[in-house]
């Protein structure tokens, strides 16, 4: 999948945003509303969010108010998202500060936007892990791993160099938070919990929270027959962790198909 | 496959179109003639319409006359299509209102254009399902599924999240039409009929119509050893359904190869 | 593989070419020297000509002198080719009319260009089949088919829709030439001869010519453990035939791996 | 993976670089600092350096001081690298002449850059083989080959045309150096040593140097469960060798999975 070049479209969208004089929009390409659009195009090209699947949310960790959370809308073609289509909520009470439904009808064309169905799951990552961004994809490698190990509740892999891109997480007794204390080692075993899918995305919240609690070392949760949630300290860490994990999941599928165990004794 | 960037070419083509003062062409990137070109480039990059295979038709559902149907020409390289190369017909009697053969010879270079051989199949989707657009691809995942289940007349898959991107369709007693009443559920079984291929594309019409009649819940028909037809209420719905179905067909090939049943009991 | 965007580079190259006042170069994007560059970038993105592999030659069938043949140089990164780097020869005696070695040293940087090692093979397609263009790739699907059917001297496939993109060829008694008389049918068996590889590319000439002679219906020759040669009446036909054949070779590998015969009885 | 188009960003980065009046930066697209950025985007698109994996170093073989070596920083997203982020060291004593940490804080945002962990390995290629550039990727084909032949310390392949893209290397008695004396032949056996991975990348140095010493004919070393190092006389040769080797590794995985030996007796 290669999304059409958005060079010119993006800049005109940015201008339209400027005209809106909307304090939740910006010309800065690193603004959360703009980054969500850029990353969704990238994820679409990777076949991770085709068919309106998947989602992303970014907390404005570098902005004036680091409690602001930007959330992509539900059911929209991810590669065509525009910055003005974002929802904005404020932590910790998740008060909705901005909805694209307040934009002029020339933009919304009277479409009624809803925040991503993943919103309560994103919020769990923010509240339980102090995440700076959370990515959800329908990656086929993720789905295949949950099918190839259908009787397991954990995906495991060890002794692959790419594991070193993932964070070593530890409970900090003084801050009472899970914090990054370095990177995983080559010989470490990466363990990602797999939770069972539910008919409604929001119903995943309880089991996702339980997995986050039970696996203090994980920065991701796989959802059987569905996809994966990955979070990180900021948007770029979340992106890098997601890439590294997807690389490992893709490799694990190939290893399984060739009869090579993913964990070396 | 990555079609060459058409940034500059497209805009000059749009200008050429404007010079034609042709009421079936427009500067608006969302005009059917322009969207057919954009989507064909995208489909080419997905290996769905290489070698002049596949086709697409869009009904101008948002235009002044929603009975106007735009149809790509037959046998042309899909990634190089230009807006002026479209045929336009009017429903319900399918009267041809525009042919690219009326364009100046500087453009046509005396090539004799013919409407896509899929035209009667597209028309079946318009007349029987009130579709807003119809997509036909030679997707290898689609062909492989018809080969891996060669003795079946239906492709089936259940319990995969991506199924939720597809529409729940139901016969409306008052309008006497099949209408979308929501989306499919995660645990629903998606069933797509498979019809046998024929030497001439137009000879598929009868069996396609029969499949549409017999499967009121489907928004797609697979053609054995050939590809797939997917339609939707408008062009973007058709695109999203096609992406979601292709994702599921690709996954089904992998599941079959790993001995995992596509339907969970 | 996605070659870096050449939008701006190409146009400056065209300008540089114009400055050269070279009658074998042109601003027209459809000029053979420009098309070779465009197609090589496309082929690179398809993994067909990476590592300087593969090659292409175009005859100027629409130009003033249709006997002029443009040939890409040997051993150059295909995705970085510039129009001024082409060789030009004239049929039938293959006299060399232009070599990039005559360009100013600012361009050549004193590199000594040689015409593609495929040149005698391209010439065979021109002389024996009156081809308008000839494409040579190291496609992995092509190599895999010659390995999966290592004991066969023909690749065969039938009853796949994409076969219809290929030409039906016949000997014309009056012109004494092999000519296109239509397209293949869905149920036709496509047969592509496989010749054995040789240490030096030019040593393939005899067996390629023999295959062309023995298979009057073919528009391509596979080379065992090496790749494929595909030609057509003009450059676009050659491109479309090559795409359609590669689609079929890719599908054939998948069919073989799933135990599905490529020819239906 | 398709990295976002950097057309406009690159040029502004080049301008920012110019403002820096930094003698290790240049407007010339062929300058090592610019080439590292261009190639990292290309490698990212090939899934070779996702998740900050991999690395590259280029020696300024065409510049005033051919002992200058440019090195990408450690742990940065490879597709987003900017020319000013490079380290520069001088051979043979590897004295660090430039660090991005000296750039203004508007650029560095106080991030503390470190040179790639591969630096001692790159330096081994420069000192032992007089290389002009060295590429390190986490290519899945490379990792899979080290897993599929887990009990072997060499990867072998013969009788594939693409082998001819690789150099024939020989010890020159008068210069006391390993030098390129031509290209490999089709029927030659390409042998690439496989070394075992270590927890820390720099600890690979000894075994990499031993492999380089023991395999005078190789231009690459595979690292088990990790990736590959490839070098060449200059940056373009290194790129071409890396592409050709990755093509062969990808093919070898397919051959192994189909039970076809990679070496023909």
From TrEMBL, chains A, B, C, D:
Pfam families: Aldolase_II. Its EC number is 4.2.1.109. Keywords: Amino-acid biosynthesis, Cytoplasm, Lyase, Metal-binding, Methionine biosynthesis, Zinc. Binds 1 zinc ion per subunit. Its cofactor is Zn(2+). Zn(2+) binds at residues 136, 138, 226. Residues 34-253 form the Class II aldolase/adducin N-terminal domain. One of its GO terms (molecular function) is zinc ion binding. The active site is at 161 (proton donor/acceptor). Its main location: cytoplasm. GO terms for cellular component: cytoplasm. It comes from the Eukaryota. Belongs to the aldolase class II family. MtnB subfamily. This is Methylthioribulose-1-phosphate dehydratase. The gene is MDE1.
């Amino acid at each position: 999948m290669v999304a059409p070049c958005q060079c010119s479209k993006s800049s005109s969208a940015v201008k339209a945003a400027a005209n809106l004089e909307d304090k939740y929009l910006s010309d800065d390409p690193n603004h959360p509303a703009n980054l969500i659009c850029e990353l969704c195009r990238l994820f679409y090209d990777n076949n991770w969010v085709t068919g309106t699947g998947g989602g992303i949310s970014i907390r404005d960790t570098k902005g004036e108010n680091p409690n602001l959370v930007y959330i992509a809308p539900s059911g929209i073609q991810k590669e065509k998202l525009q910055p003005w289509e974002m929802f904005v909520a404020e932590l910790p009470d998740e008060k909705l500060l901005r909805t694209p439904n307040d934009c002029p009808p020339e933009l919304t064309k009277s479409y009624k936007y809803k925040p991503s169905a993943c919103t309560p799951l994103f919020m769990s990552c923010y509240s339980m892990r102090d995440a700076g961004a959370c990515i959800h994809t329908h990656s086929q490698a993720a789905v295949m791993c949950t099918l190839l190990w259908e009787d397991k509740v954990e995906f495991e892999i060890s002794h692959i160099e790419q594991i070193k891109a993932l964070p070593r997480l530890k409970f900090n007794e003084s801050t009472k938070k899970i914090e990054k204390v370095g990177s995983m080692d080559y010989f470490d075993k990466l363990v990602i919990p797999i939770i069972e899918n539910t008919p409604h995305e929001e119903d995943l919240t309880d089991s996702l929270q339980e997995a986050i609690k039970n696996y203090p070392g994980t920065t991701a949760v796989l959802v059987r027959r569905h996809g994966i949630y990955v979070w990180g300290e900021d948007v770029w860490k979340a992106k890098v962790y997601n890439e590294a994990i997807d690389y490992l999941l893709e490799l694990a599928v190939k290893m399984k198909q060739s009869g090579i165990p993913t964990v070396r004794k």
